[in-house]
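User: Sequence recovery, please. Input:
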């Protein structure tokens, strides 16, 4: 299935007047943020990762491209999508290693590849950083869709293990979509347990959870 040139134009960044300084979660107003601009999850240490970046909102053309890449076997989209990731990552950030959020072996076997791993290799090439699979998903957790924030964190708690020590390394963790950040947070905690100095998350898209109409939100977000 070909993808037209217009669809491969750089997506518009996720816009909001108020963002968390660390995880870049958008908010309708400043009330969830403290005097330093951090949300409750970041200031309480529940995020796991230190900061997060993304290309745009998980909707429209970007959402369709991610579905083609993730569910329709269009691996060649890794190159243009990887270029978007490179553009979304600030040039002043320095990293020692790129790694991806892993799939359970059964899911990887069914799909034939890990889309986050392909994206990780693309951003590693673009930034000249080594890429390595240092995480293992030890259990097949149930789907995150439909779970609350707390249930999502509980669902993936302890699901990931570091395959080797990463003592003192600044790690860039790559995924395709960030919803609440629960999965990435569990990965980040496993990396830090193995000695990582810092973990930054880079995702193609994030679900904008400012929507208050849950029925409409469910229609817009699609499968995760």
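Assistant: Recovered sequence (224 residues):
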């Amino acid at each position: 299935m070909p993808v037209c040139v217009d669809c491969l134009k750089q997506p518009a960044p996720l816009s909001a007047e108020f963002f968390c300084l660390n995880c870049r979660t958008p908010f309708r107003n400043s009330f969830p943020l403290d005097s330093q601009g951090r949300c409750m999850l970041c200031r309480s240490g529940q995020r796991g990762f230190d900061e997060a970046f993304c290309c745009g909102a998980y909707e429209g053309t970007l959402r369709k491209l991610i579905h083609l890449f993730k569910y329709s076997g269009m691996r060649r989209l890794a190159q243009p999508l990887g270029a978007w990731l490179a553009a979304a990552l600030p040039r002043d950030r320095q990293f020692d290693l790129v790694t991806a959020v892993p799939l359970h072996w059964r899911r990887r076997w069914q799909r034939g590849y890990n889309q986050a791993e392909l994206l990780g290799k693309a951003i590693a090439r673009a930034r000249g950083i080594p890429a390595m699979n240092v995480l293992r998903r030890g259990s097949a957790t149930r789907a995150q869709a439909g779970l609350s924030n707390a249930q999502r964190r509980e669902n993936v708690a302890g699901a990931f293990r570091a395959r080797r020590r990463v003592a003192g390394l600044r790690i860039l963790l790559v995924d395709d979509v960030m919803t609440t950040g629960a999965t990435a947070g569990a990965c980040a905690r496993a990396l830090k347990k193995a000695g990582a100095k810092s973990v930054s998350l880079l995702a193609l898209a994030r679900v904008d959870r400012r929507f208050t109409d849950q029925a409409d939100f469910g229609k817009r977000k699609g499968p995760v």
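Residues 212-224 have pLDDT under 50 and may be disordered.
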